[in-house]
Write a structure and sequence with these properties.
four-stranded parallel beta sheet; single chain; binds glutamic acid; about 25% helix; alpha/beta; about 20% strand; eight-stranded mixed beta sheet; about 325 residues; globular
Length: about 325
């Protein structure tokens, strides 16, 4: 199992005894592995330091680098599974990006921690142990990119961070976890659940030498003006995901701007700031040419749109990518 470390709180060091003031992304991958000697009874591990950052600084360029590393690790038979340690703030985004471009069946498991490494009750070692056990488990093969936090196993396409500080910080609000880990053993609730949705992955080789199209997110709320939306369009964004209210609705000003943007070739995806239910169709105020996000959150819809725009510029084709999600 190769542990690819990217930083985050799991590699963080507390400056205060209670651990509430700390600096993320301090420990190297070797120190992370040394903290969990129990791993050696489960798998033979190697560490690879990809970067060491707090995940609010994560960037699409690092996603592409990570995907290339995963692809080359899996190109031989040297590596049975990969664990990625990551800050929890954007873990769901990196995991989802990788899920969209990783065509290998062998397990890739993301994990992190909510408490820094030297705080009382640090959750990093237990999460890392679980992630390695899962990455080494044949039951995790073919399930797409997984996230393990606090003994629960989630699918990258469904999981989201739902708490800012508690170790129970991740959920799949609509679908629930795929399973759980006890004593280093994974139990999947439904063995067939967890197949990746996207039929054909985007080619990482084709993405390696280019920047992804720029896609931004605008939130709607009572009285939202179109200032941000219009500014993004003026500055050349190629797509805007609207984190709408309710079933993907947005204010009148944003609606007018969205109509104009679509007419001018900017892609608009209706998503929702609500945690459950997704956006399945243009229920209210429909107009031709906008795309609906289905079950993807705004931050995940943005990533799928960035990748979809590398494949097509037809709204109907873009919608077909989203339609592969429930
Ligand atoms: N903001 C930091 C990050 O995402 C710390 C949060 C965490 O890892 O839990 O890397």
């Amino acid at each position: 199992i190769v542990i690819v470390a990217t930083g985050g709180t799991i590699a963080g060091i507390a400056d205060s005894p209670a651990g509430n003031v700390y600096t993320p992304a301090q420990l190297t991958v070797e120190s992370l592995i040394r903290q969990v000697p129990q791993i050696s009874g489960k798998a033979s591990v190697e560490g690879l330091q990809l970067c060491n950052i707090a995940s609010q600084y994560m960037m699409p360029r690092i996603w592409i680098h990570l995907a290339g590393v995963v692809d080359s690790l899996f190109s031989g038979d040297h590596c049975d599974g990969i664990v990625v340690t990551h800050g929890t703030d954007t873990m769901e985004e990196t995991a989802f990006f990788l899920d969209l471009v990783n065509a290998h069946e062998r397990p890739v498991v993301f994990t992190g921690s909510m408490r820094p490494s030297n705080s009382p009750g640090a959750d990093g070692p237990a999460n890392l142990f679980n992630a390695v056990c899962l990455a080494a488990d044949p039951a995790a093969v073919g399930k797409g990119v997984l996230v393990v936090m606090n003994d629960y196993i989630f699918s990258a396409s469904e999981v989201t961070k739902t708490h800012t500080v508690n170790p129970q910080a991740f959920e799949s609000p609509d679908q629930g976890p795929l399973g759980t880990i006890r004593g280093g053993n994974a139990f999947f609730y439904h063995p067939r659940h967890g197949r990746p949705f996207l039929e054909k992955k985007f080619s990482i080789a084709e993405l390696a030498n280019r920047d992804l199209p720029r896609v931004d997110i605008v939130m709607s709320y009572a009285g939202a003006t179109s200032l941000l939306f219009d500014t993004l369009v003026k500055n050349g964004t190629e797509g805007i995901v609207i984190a709408g209210v309710g079933h993907g609705n947005y204010s009148e000003q944003i609606e007018n701007s969205a109509k104009n943007a679509v007419r001018n070739g900017v892609f608009v995806v209706r998503a929702t700031r609500v945690l459950q239910g997704g956006v399945s169709s243009d229920v209210e105020n429909p107009f031709k040419g906008q795309v609906v996000s289905r079950s993807l959150s705004p931050q995940k819809a943005r990533i799928l749109l960035m990748l979809a725009l590398t494949a097509s510029r037809e709204p109907a084709d873009i919608q077909r990518f989203f339609d592969q999600y429930p």
